[in-house]
Automatic annotation (TrEMBL):
Domain of life, per lineage: Bacteria
Xref: SUPFAM superfamilies: Metallo-hydrolase/oxidoreductase
CDD domains tied to this protein: metallo-hydrolase-like_MBL-fold
InterPro entries assigned to the protein according to its UniProt record, in alphabetical order: MBL_Glyoxalase_II (IPR051453), Metallo-B-lactamas (IPR001279), RibonucZ/Hydroxyglut_hydro (IPR036866)
Protein name: MBL fold metallo-hydrolase
One Pfam entry name: Lactamase_B
Length: 218
């Protein structure tokens, strides 16, 4: 089946099958959070992005092979409600942006800085530090050697705009700058965007609207 990126809480996961990586997207919790399970097709090692809620659903998606790592995109509580239970069940190492680690109640084993590489099997993901939604928000970029890039943006980039900066002009200026310079300026239009809530998008679909976002201030 063709991957759409459209998932609902309580509904089935959607799987994006790439040559080296399988990406399973599932929606959990009262805030319709997205969680992403990445599986290296060469080694079967797995990594989870955002143990957001509903540990039972996440552990069922993970299956008997477990996970080596879990990455929390930022410190907001709706993105780590199931983290303690998932880590207890799997023994996974925890990763999060350095500036957000203290706001996550499960200890962070690997604090991430901009440009750090996280490996899942033979696949490499690059952390990009995007400041504004929170001080330590990170996106993860997978530069697929067989196709276009894929980026997991947490709550920093969605269809229709950047993440919530709570009407703080300084925070918005920081976030739009980081999203433009670290995501849009270095990645092509074909780049697939996997956000922390809701449907997926591409950079090409969003790029024409960057001036509009800057003008409106959110």
């Amino acid at each position: 089946m063709t991957y759409s990126g459209r998932v609902t809480v309580g509904g089935p996961a959607d799987v994006h099958e790439l040559k080296d990586l399988m990406i399973t997207k599932v929606a959990v919790g009262p805030m319709d959070n997205n969680a992403y399970l990445l599986r290296c097709r060469a080694t079967d090692e797995q990594l989870l992005i955002d143990a957001a809620n509903d540990a039972g659903t996440l552990l069922g998606t993970i299956g008997d092979d477990g996970i080596a790592s879990v990455v929390t995109t930022h410190r907001h509580g709706d993105h780590w409600q199931a983290l303690a239970e998932v880590v207890a069940a799997t023994g996974a190492r925890t990763h999060a942006g350095r500036e957000d680690a203290e706001g996550i109640p499960v200890p962070t084993d690997v604090p991430l800085d901009d440009g750090d590489v996280i490996r899942v099997g033979r696949v490499e993901l690059t952390a990009r530090h995007l400041v504004g939604h929170t001080p330590g928000s990170i996106a993860l970029v997978y530069d697929d050697p067989h196709g276009h890039p894929h980026v997991f943006t947490g709550d920093c980039l969605f269809p229709g705009g950047v993440g919530n900066t709570h009407k703080d002009p300084k925070a918005f200026a920081s976030l739009i700058h980081d999203v433009e310079t670290k995501i849009f300026e270095v990645l092509p239009d074909e780049t697939w965007v996997y956000p922390g809530h809701g449907d997926d998008t591409t950079l090409g679909a969003e790029r024409p609207h960057l001036p509009e976002w800057r003008a409106r201030g959110w």
